[in-house]
Amino acid sequence: MNRAVYIETYGCQMNVLDSELVAGQLEAAGYRIVESAAVADVVLINTCSVRDLAEHKVWSHLGRLGVEKEEGRKDLIIGVIGCMAEREAEAIVKRAPQVEIVCSPSRLDRLPILLQNAIENHQFQRATAGHSQRSGVTPSDSADDLEALDSARSYVRAATSAQAFVRVTRGCNKLCSFCVVPYTRGPEVHRPPQLIIDEAKRLVDAGVIEVTLLGQTVNHYAYRAGEVTTSFAQLLWRVHEEVPGIERLRFVTSFPRDFDDETLDVMARSSRICRYLHLPVQSGSNRMLQLMNRGHTIESYMALLERARQLMPDICFAGDMIVGFPSETEGDHALSKELLRVAQYKGCFVFKYSPRSGTVAHRRYPDDVPDVVKKERNLELLDIQSEISLAHNRNKIGQAFEVLVESQSKLRAHGNNELVQIDGLRGASSRKARLVARTRGDEIVAFDGDASLVGTSVRVRGVDATPLTILARLED
Ligand code: SAH
Ligand code: F3S
User: Fold this and answer.
1) Which of 138, 262, 431, 467 could form a disulfide bond with 386, CB atoms 3.0-4.6 angstroms apart?
2) Which pTM value belongs to this model?
């Protein structure tokens, strides 16, 4: 019987893609991928290090698995992959001896061999890259071992969904002072355009209709071959033109400083490119932005949003904000509140600053904003954004628009359009289900419809709204 592998994924879209690629790679090597840790012979945890809380969750998960292993599941193999594997390898060896595999994001091509060794020899296996030692920007490279992981993608696995991620850039060279990603995923590496296009074509042949290009700073893509450089705008246009089967082409995450007008022009030229930009601003205060080493100002950022809105009036923006960065005053915070009001995001992620060892901010700036103040500021920004998101979603009431149905919800309309959790929906005899879908602007839409609509585009009409969801009904 083939060994069963369960992969638990924390963190960003890059991790979701990595888990999919690892699953495909392990299936090709003869393993079975299962949906529950309880029935697995191997549990791989794909980890996130961006905030302390994310690492905390993994430590307690590892603790629970360690107890299970001790109390009867002696042959269970536990592996840590992803950003914590790179950052915390030593600590994992010390604190979690039940872990037999540690494999960093830029070494995932080696995972099948590590797993085989772990199974055969029951010896600790480690593949890390030493990125945590990097001290500055490394010139962007165009080739690396990890290409093997993306190139060996399983299209059978990809065919199970109408949506797929395609990596365009690995790693990050921005070195924002608060962020660990450059130290966990390593220097920026751009994939050749032809490989990206071929991958997108094969995904479309497998039934995918929405492709999201992924990079930590996706719009910073630049592939050099001899004298010729392919920019992100050129890549986007090529994917659009050469893979006409993509109904929706999206990309995340954009780095505001590098966002050029060519990319806006390419977006405006095609309705198949989604009207959505995730442009993390991080703060409304130029003083904070400078300490964060973001390279943009509030003025340049707002000018970019305005140019984009002029070209594409229906475009939606999402933001990221950090509250309580070292030395943030009430005055700086007031500027962040102001920014939310003028930016008018459809949604914004708000994070409390979490000091990360190895980063410039951790070395240079004391974490001097008390946690209660961070919490207050976090709630204040969320409250403001919630009002803006509600008004944004209410604008859709009465309008008809197209959505891509992503999944069946475990939530169902109850009374006054409030959503409540119900169990056993999948097993319900009626195929009627609450469906969750997305607009081209990345707005979340919920409506009742037949479960067979998952993976298709349909027209709906907005009937009600909450800050997070547009409630709709199917158009006839
Ligand atoms: N470019 C990446 C950014 C990864 S981190 C991307 O794909 O989105 C995602 C977000 O986490 C950042 O935009 C930032 O808002 C937040 N973040 C990163 N490091 C943080 C830290 N040390 N404390 C709090 N929030 C952080
Ligand atoms: Fe992190 Fe800044 Fe790169 S937020 S991922 S260092 S763009």
Assistant:
1) 467
2) 0.94
